[in-house]
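ok so i was messing around last nite and threw this chain in just to see what happens. nothing serious, just curious
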Amino acid sequence: QVQLVESGGGLVQPGGSLRLSCAASGFTFSTYRMRWYRQAPGKERELVATIFGNGGSTSYADSVKGRFTISRDNSKNTVYLQMNSLKPEDTAVYYCRASRTLFGGTSDYWGQGTQVTVSS
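result:
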């Protein structure tokens, strides 16, 4: 069975930091690209960061570039999102997503989300 479990969310003050983790099981983690998304109340889910299987290629939304860092440890089947200089507008539920596209089909898995709240 496939499972993605996010952790590390919580309440932080503006300017603070959090490190989110997403632990994967039930599939060949290293062959999947991993993404972090977030969704705030009343807003659409948005892509925050992407990392490919070997960790050598990453991309970020403009709103988080320079503040957030995505990384992965394939030996631990875990992807991370280091969030620094947090702003109130970063408040959202953060989700990890594993995906792989092959000839003739795709695989796509989502975690349950973890809440991040940035507030004084």
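not much to say yet. The two ends are 40 Å apart (CA to CA).
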